[in-house]
Structures are given as structure tokens and as C-alpha cells.
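Q: What residues go here?
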């Protein structure tokens, strides 16, 4: 790992958009469906679509409801996507461009893009300049989820082979350390790193709050070591599986490890988990909805996506138990509004600082969540009214 020195980040500025979000008892995010099929390999009819207009409307509605952030994934699929009649995720928007573009139609919500920094010819100077630009366009609301690429077949599209797991994180550490230096240095920067070099590099304008928001998704020791050095938000998975009981059993030790490693470096990180929320007024209605999603599964797409995960070397999913795979998402929260809120409360107690939720049918399910679940979250003290701009 490169030697790093403590530099102010957006959480250190009381008036930054991130600092405002971190004052919430439970961070609330929306994981946008910028990929065809969203998170589910079911063919049950729904409005969910990958288009920019649809995702922009979701983002504006989430902002109006008081959500703290939106997030987009990045992926590289060949023709046919992950297979099946639905050609699952064959079509997707680029996360970096799409989420950055949302700055033009929003004013408060945080915007987190995902980027594979090791694919192709990315250089820290590129991202430092692009990121500082988006930081100013968004008023300090933009951030990047740095991913290294666990899939076996994605790097082949760039004329590469997959880099060994722990080496990827050492490379990402150098890349992001250089980003942080470019965002903070007041003079030209010359570096001869192990993987990246630069001579008399300089970036201006500087980000408004030290640097843009930094995020990563991890569960491995190497990933955790990277996360506690650099990230503000860490996107975690449930080590035990996609059912709530298994998650609640496995999460406390996992989140405690992350916090403990961060404290050793004098840092504080926040963890965010991704549940698929399926909610209806009664248990009978919600189970019928869940079962209809499963019954309409595209079996080939379901297996194709599972095989993609098995072929990867991500360590966070190795021991997971998976039920009702066509539903999708890292964790299934299925219940009445009261049961969903109880699940949120239990996940918070298990060490989750935030939840980045997905829906099967995003637009109507988001409306139902806003009308029926959000008021109960406020009553439970899990959400405060969002702060307004001065």
C-alpha cells in the first residue's frame, strides 16, 4: 500500500452535503435501475426500465421524499447479457456519465457513480479532473464508487485478463492515493508510482469540500484494508445470505470489523447494505406479490446471472445462502409497512448505517414506500426531516 497522509474529506466540513447526510440516524439511498431488468430476473410485467428519463424521474421523486442518495452500478456485458428470453442486463447506461448528469436535475440528493478504475486506460489525472468538475457542477454532491472488477469475462472486452484479487486492491490504493493528492496539492505533482506515473500534474478547480465522496463495495480482507484507508461509505453485503434472519446473525461481526479497522487509522466509515424491498398492506398481499415475481422467473437468466457470480472472485458472497433468487438484491425484505420498518430497525442495530434499497417495480413501489413506510421510519426515529439549504 502507498503511504497515505490524512487529508480533509467531505465529512470533515460541517456544511458539506455528505456531512448533512451523516447526521441522519439511518442513511436512505435508492439503487437506480440503469440496467435492463433492474435487479430481478422475473418477467412479471413492470414499469422498471434502464432509460435515463425513467431514472431521472425516480431520482427527482426520491429527492422529494427525502432520500439521501442515489447510486448506479457499472457492468460490462456481451451481447445477450446474462441470458434468457429477457437478455438480462444486456442494455445498461454508463454509471459515471448517467449519475453525473443527474446533477443538472437535482439540488440536494447525493449522486454516486460506479467506475472500474483498472479497466482500460484510466489515469488518475483523468478522474481527478472529471471528478473535480462534477464536484463543482453538483455543489459537492457527487462521489465515486471505486470498483476493481471481480468478473472473469469483463476485462477481456478491454484486451485484459483479470488481475489477481489482492493485487487489484493494491493498484486501487495507488490510484486513489494519487487522486487524493491531485485534489489537494497546491503545486505541480510529479510521481513515479508502481503502476502510474505523472510529471508536473495539476488539477484545478479543487473540490469544494476537500475531495469528492469516496465509496467502495467490499467484503474481503484486502478490500476492507482499502476501504478503511479511503472510503467514506462502504457498500457491504450480508455475509449470511439474502434472508433477514441470516443477515442479522452475520452482520454484527462484519460491521464491527470494518469499524475497528477504521479506528486503527483514526478514521470513521459508514456501512450501507442493499435490500430488495417488497411491501404491501397485508402479509397475504405481499407474499402473493413475492410469489408472483418468483413464478414468472426467466430460469435461464437466473442461472446465467448466478453463474456470472460464481465465475468471479469476489469474496463477500462466498458463504451466502440464497433463496428466491429471481427476486434479486442482496437481501430480501418482504412484509407490511410495519414489518419493513422493523427490518430496517434490526439492520441498523446489526451495524448498518444506511440502506440502499431496490424495488421490483420501481416507480409505483417507490410511491408506496413513500406513502406507507417513510412516515413510520420517522415515527421510529430512524429518519429525520432532511436539512434544507441555507
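A:
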Amino acid at each position: 500500500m502507498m503511504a497515505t497522509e490524512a487529508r480533509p474529506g467531505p465529512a470533515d466540513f460541517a456544511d458539506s452535503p455528505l456531512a448533512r447526510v451523516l447526521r441522519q440516524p439511518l442513511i436512505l439511498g435508492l439503487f437506480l435501475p440503469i440496467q435492463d431488468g433492474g435487479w430481478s430476473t422475473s418477467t412479471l410485467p413492470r414499469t422498471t426500465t434502464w432509460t435515463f428519463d425513467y431514472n431521472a424521474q425516480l431520482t427527482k421523486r426520491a429527492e422529494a421524499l427525502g432520500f439521501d442518495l442515489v447510486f448506479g452500478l457499472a457492468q460490462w456485458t456481451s451481447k445477450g447479457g446474462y441470458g434468457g428470453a429477457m437478455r438480462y442486463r444486456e442494455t445498461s447506461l454508463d454509471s459515471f456519465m448517467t449519475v453525473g448528469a443527474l446533477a443538472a436535475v437535482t439540488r440536494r440528493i447525493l449522486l454516486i457513480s460506479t467506475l472500474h478504475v483498472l479497466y482500460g486506460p484510466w489515469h488518475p489525472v483523468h478522474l481527478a479532473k472529471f471528478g473535480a468538475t462534477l464536484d463543482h457542477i453538483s455543489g459537492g454532491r457527487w462521489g465515486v464508487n471505486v470498483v476493481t472488477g471481480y468478473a472473469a469475462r469483463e476485462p477481456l472486452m478491454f484486451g485484459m485478463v483479470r488481475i489477481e484479487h489482492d493485487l487489484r486492491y493494491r493498484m486501487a490504493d495507488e490510484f486513489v492515493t494519487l487522486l487524493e493528492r491531485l485534489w489537494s496539492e497546491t503545486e505541480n505533482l510529479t510521481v513515479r508510482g508502481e503502476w502510474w506515473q505523472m510529471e508536473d500534474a495539476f488539477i484545478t478547480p479543487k473540490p469544494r469540500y476537500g475531495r469528492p465522496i469516496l465509496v467502495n463495495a467490499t467484503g474481503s480482507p484486502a478490500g476492507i484494508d482499502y476501504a478503511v484507508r479511503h472510503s467514506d461509505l462502504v457498500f457491504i453485503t450480508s455475509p449470511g445470505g439474502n434472508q433477514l434472519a441470516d443477515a442479522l446473525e452475520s452482520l454484527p461481526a462484519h460491521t464491527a470489523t470494518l469499524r475497528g479497522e477504521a479506528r486503527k487509522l483514526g478514521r470513521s466509515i459508514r456501512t450501507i447494505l442493499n435490500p430488495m424491498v417488497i411491501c404491501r398492506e397485508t402479509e397475504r398481499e405481499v407474499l402473493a406479490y413475492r410469489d408472483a415475481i418468483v413464478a414468472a422467473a426467466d430460469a435461464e437468466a437466473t442461472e446465467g446471472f448466478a453463474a456470472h457470480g460464481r465465475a468471479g472472485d469476489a469474496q463477500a458472497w462466498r458463504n451466502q445462502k440464497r433463496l428466491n433468487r429471481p427476486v434479486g438484491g442482496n437481501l430480501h425484505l418482504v412484509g407490511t409497512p410495519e414489518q419493513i420498518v422493523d427490518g430496517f430497525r434490526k439492520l441498523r442495530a446489526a451495524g448498518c448505517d444506511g440502506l440502499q434499497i431496490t424495488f421490483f417495480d420501481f416507480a409505483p413501489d417507490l410511491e408506496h414506500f413513500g406513502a406507507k413506510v417513510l412516515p413510520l421510519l420517522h415515527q421510529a426515529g430512524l429518519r429525520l426531516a432532511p436539512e434544507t439549504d441555507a
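A: Context that may help when evaluating the design: The radius of gyration is 20 Å. The longest strand covers residues 110-116.
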